[in-house]
Specification:
mainly alpha; two-stranded antiparallel sheet; globular; binds zinc ion
């Protein structure tokens, strides 16, 4: 091959085919891996900053060099644990192979949102008559709308999470998330597609009600305030710590703030193996729902607990067992008589 032929080949490779191949690669392989909102560079940076503050304030004696911070932040026994390695494999399969299923859940959720928004607007029109609303909302209205949209979304998550724990067949799918024996930020994405559908569906239906109410009073339309395309309130109170919810960084908010917001430690307790912690802290952003419905548990900062499910809860050691076994267990739970001793966790 001559030099000219090589150059021609390189030019050809850099042509439209390569560009379209690269774009296919991005949208089908790399894009889905980056899609989860919590893995945005901004939230990764915030998590490291909060973890560093926590490390400086609370981690015991010893030379606190940057090196010891990094080995504390990314401990081998957590990040290379068999459970964490399964999380990574599950993440890749879930994000790539099952993305069409995820798309299906997105479509379901969007339809649910539009239905809820339209039904709410139609109800208000029937009750109050045709909208006499204003075309442009003020900034104060936009702030309220942004906050209420986040709250409605979070309440939908709470409801879905409550059902995932209390309905035996749904619990079989949710167990996939709870079977993790160590928590890393990738564990946050260890959830079954059925789990995700219910979660996304109820979140958007709830947000749809708020959209419908505001859509009635502001027929000109309004959009939530955003910071880097994230809901602005969530960007201030939720996303900066979201990656610590699934981590070994036991960041708590103290007894007062914990009555308003879910701290990373409160979600870690939600994963506890200890019985007093079961079915507590279903919320993700606000702890109001847990407080109002009696499921709040504010742990002490030194409270010790193991993570995972009791022995005999099922098989959770391969990606296939995480994906397929819940269907079998849910079927058995639904169609076979329950054991006399009650439902095992
Ligand atoms: Zn749960
Ligand atoms: Zn979790």
């Amino acid at each position: 091959m001559t030099l000219d032929q090589i150059r021609a080949l390189v030019e050809e490779l850099a042509g439209p085919q390569v560009r379209s191949a690269l774009s296919w690669l991005y949208y089908n392989l790399i894009g889905p891996m980056l899609a989860p909102t919590g893995l945005h560079w901004l939230w990764i940076s915030c998590a490291v900053v909060f973890a560093y503050g926590f490390f400086r304030l609370t981690v015991g004696a010893g030379p606190r060099t940057e090196r010891s911070f990094i080995s504390w932040l990314v401990p081998r026994e957590v990040f290379l644990h068999a459970s964490a390695r399964l999380d990574y494999r599950f993440y890749v399969v879930n994000q790539l192979v099952l993305m069409h299923l995820r798309l299906g859940s997105l479509v379901t959720a969007i339809v649910g949102f539009l239905f809820a928004a339209d039904a709410t607007k139609a109800l208000l029109t029937a009750l109050l008559g045709a909208s006499q609303g204003q075309a442009t909302p003020s900034i104060a209205i936009l702030i309220v709308f942004t906050l209420l949209t986040l709250m409605a979304n979070d309440f939908g998550r709470y409801l879905a999470h409550y059902l995932q724990h209390k309905v035996p067949s749904l619990w079989e799918f949710h167990k996939v998330h709870h079977a993790a024996e160590v928590l890393t930020p990738i564990t946050g994405y260890r959830s079954h597609a059925i789990d995700q559908m219910l979660d996304m569906g109820l979140r958007l239906v709830m947000a749809g009600f708020i959209g419908g109410v505001f859509g009635y009073f502001y027929p000109g339309g309004l959009a939530e305030l955003t910071i880097l395309s994230f809901n602005a309130v969530a960007a201030l109170i939720y996303y900066p710590v979201v990656l610590l919810q699934h981590s070994h960084v036991r960041l708590g908010y103290g007894p007062i703030l914990s009555r308003m917001l879910i701290s990373p430690l409160m979600h870690q307790v939600h994963h506890s193996l200890e019985k007093p912690h079961w079915d507590k802290n279903f919320g993700f952003t606000f702890s109001l729902w847990d407080r109002w419905f009696g499921t709040l548990y504010v742990p002490r900062s030194d409270e010790q607990f193991q993570l995972g499910l009791p022995v005999g809860s099922g098989r959770f050691d391969t990606v296939w067992s995480l994906l397929a076994d819940p269907f079998v267990r849910a079927f058995k739970r639904t169609w076979r008589p329950r054991p006399a001793a009650g439902i095992p966790r």
